[in-house]
């Protein structure tokens, strides 16, 4: 997401109220080092989705705007873990704190999963960047503080900033990528998913709308062209926020992508009334 355009309302999914989480996991001492957990009943064998929110890594946007999506995923049989993390504009946000927090949050879920159906990483926009980066941590040097081979089913990146270097060239998010790295572009070697390829055996699915004006589909196309194992699903005419809006026409494709990676592509969907 980029800062709110003057005179234009925010998309409804960013402001719509949603229920509080069923419980909260703390993975550090900072107030934002927490993970919301949502589940619909006792589902010990449910797949777990770690859902990383977007917002161009900026403090103005937090995990609350993904609550409608998380609620709907929980209704569809998933246990959903939505981490918060330190962001640009907060003490410790940006590099390395944002990456420290995301790595710690994902590791906390994997160390003690709230259900036994395997873990899927997912993320939207800047959260898609962080989800892909997390999935590729095994490609970091062994000496890196973040190096790890995660035991996950795969990754679903929604309208992701999959090519951080290109996003910086384009000036997306009013230069948020440069701000994330404090203008130290040498850090792209350890923070840009494109520069950590190849992923290797596993499942990577990217979903991107062709009418996305905030994060152009070009970034996902570049990533998919560089990673033979990646599947890119382009949604004709879809914009940026429809991918996290359960009321949108894009939502069934998102649900199918997550179900595919989770091994439950035929999950029953609750009827709307």
Automatic annotation (TrEMBL):
Sequence ranges assigned to domain BD-FAE-like in this UniProt record: 44-224
Recorded superkingdom: Bacteria
Keyword Amino-acid biosynthesis in annotation: no
Keyword Hydrolase: yes
InterPro entries named among the record's database cross-references: AB_hydrolase_fold (IPR029058), BD-FAE-like_dom (IPR049492), GDXG_lipolytic_enzyme (IPR050300)
Keywords: Hydrolase
Region (Disordered): 1-20
Coiled-coil regions listed: none
Short name of one Pfam family: BD-FAE
Protein name (database record): Lipase
